[in-house]
Amino acid sequence: MATPVLDSLLRINRQRMLALRRVLTPRGYVGFMHLILLYTRQHPGASQEEIAGFYALDKASVARDARRLEDAGHIRRRTDPANRRQNQLFITPSGGEMAAIIDEVHLTFQHRLSLGISPEDWEKLTALLAVAEENTRQTAAGPAQEKNTGREKN
């Protein structure tokens, strides 16, 4: 059974995805293409494996969506000279234009999401979510030393 916090996070993410799809679908974006594009912009030369690990995606989905981005002219792939079995991804100028469109959707959504929340509370929320995100990464990685916070696990 989900908790109120998890329920809220799921509903917020669903609304974010709906806002993104309204913009991405007409441009031929499906699956995880937007995540790959944004990660590649932030980490030029990233490998498909690195992206899969960061977002906890399967490698086949990343490879398929990277191929779609390459076909659309939004990224280029280059064989990694240090490991010829891996591709390095680089954003193209048209990919940069698409990333700017995605950024605008995210900024608009974040503005709507933060209405009525003070800057101080927004900073606190950001810090708390960073801790929660790190906790999920540790959980995904396997059994971890759990801190006793005085609260029961939900």
Written description of the protein model:
By secondary structure, the chain is mainly alpha-helical. Helix content is 64%, strand content 11%. It is built from six helices and three strands; from the N terminus they run ααβααββαα. It has helices spanning 4-24, 33-42, 48-55, 59-72, 93-114, 119-141, and strands at residues 46-47, 75-80, 83-91. A three-stranded antiparallel beta sheet has the order 1-3-2. Helix 1 (4-24) crosses helix 5 (93-114) and helix 2 crosses helix 5. It is globular. The chain starts with a helix and ends in a 13-residue tail after the last helix. Mean pLDDT is 89; it is low at 144-154.
Low-confidence runs of at least 5 consecutive residues: 144-154
Shape: globular
Secondary structure tally: strands: 3
Number of helices: 6
In the sheet with the most strands, the strands line up as 1-3-2
Average pLDDT, all residues: 89
SSE topology:
Elements: H1 4-24, H2 33-42, E1 46-47, H3 48-55, H4 59-72, E2 75-80, E3 83-91, H5 93-114, H6 119-141
Antiparallel strand pairs: 1-3, 2-3
Helix pairs in contact: 1-5, 2-5, 3-4
Short summary of the structure?
By secondary structure, the protein is mainly alpha-helical.
